């Protein structure tokens, strides 16, 4: 206890003890007691320790994912512990806000057309813009709700059946297995009857092709 706050505590302790003895006070349970000494020491250094801790914490306090409102609740709690005031430490506090709050948010305030003049104005603008941004994000997410992912939409159209029981793919074309069956049985791709090919079909103009016309041409030689 030779320097700083510890030396000051030692001096005060000894002086108070001497004063008590000169007044004829019983110091058995006070300045002659270890528990009393420990209590006084904790009382003296507790606030000093918490103040130093708050000083370090306010320097490294970051906004992260929390709202600006929540950040300021923590920031101002540390500010009170340290003893910073808006009047005396204003420039330093503003520099901490610009450094420790999320950069996109700070940039919106700076380039919004009006740079805040003091700490309180910075606080109001940061909270206001942060709130507006978060509400817009909620609206965007809400507008996307109910839309099915492309993969799900694709799956829904992958297999369908018509009244004849034939299975179609998502593009409305019959599956390859049905085409192979027609080819094996010698059926016309247009009318489904046996005995002729699709290019020989007499009802070609009246009947709807059984398969996609483009693919039908590719299969015509089989």
UniProtKB/TrEMBL annotation:
Provenance organism: Serpula lacrymans var. lacrymans (strain S7.3)
Biased composition (Basic and acidic residues): 141-164
PROSITE patterns: ZF_CCHC (PS50158)
InterPro entries (UniProt xref): Retrotrans_gag_dom (IPR005162), Znf_CCHC (IPR001878), Znf_CCHC_sf (IPR036875)
Molecular-function GO terms, alphabetical: nucleic acid binding; zinc ion binding
Keywords for this protein: Metal-binding, mRNA processing, Zinc, Zinc-finger
Residue intervals of the CCHC-type domain: 187-203
Signal peptide coordinates: none
Protein name: CCHC-type domain-containing protein
Source organism, top-level taxon: Eukaryota
Region annotated Disordered, chain positions: 141-170
Swiss-Prot/TrEMBL GO biological process terms: mRNA processing
């Amino acid at each position: 206890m030779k320097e700083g706050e510890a030396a000051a505590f030692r001096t005060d302790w000894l002086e108070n003890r001497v004063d008590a003895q000169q007044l004829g006070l019983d110091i058995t349970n006070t300045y002659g007691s270890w528990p009393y000494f420990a209590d006084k020491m904790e009382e003296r250094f507790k606030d000093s320790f918490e103040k130093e801790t708050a000083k370090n914490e306010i320097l490294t306090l970051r906004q992260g994912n929390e709202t600006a409102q929540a950040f300021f609740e923590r920031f101002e709690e540390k500010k009170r512990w340290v003893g910073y005031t808006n009047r005396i430490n204003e420039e330093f506090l503003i520099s901490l806000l610009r450094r420790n709050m999320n950069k996109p948010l700070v940039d919106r305030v700076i380039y919004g057309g009006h740079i805040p003049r003091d700490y309180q104005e910075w606080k109001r603008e940061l909270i206001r813009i942060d709130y507006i941004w978060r509400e817009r994000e909620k609206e965007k997410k809400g507008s996307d709700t109910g839309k099915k992912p492309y993969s799900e939409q694709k799956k829904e159209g992958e297999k369908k059946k018509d009244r004849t029981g034939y299975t179609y793919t998502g593009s409305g074309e019959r599956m390859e297995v049905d085409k192979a069956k027609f080819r094996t049985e010698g059926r016309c791709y247009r009318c489904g009857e046996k005995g002729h090919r699709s290019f020989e079909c007499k009802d070609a103009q009246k009947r709807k092709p059984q398969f996609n016309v483009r693919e039908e041409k590719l299969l015509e030689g089989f």
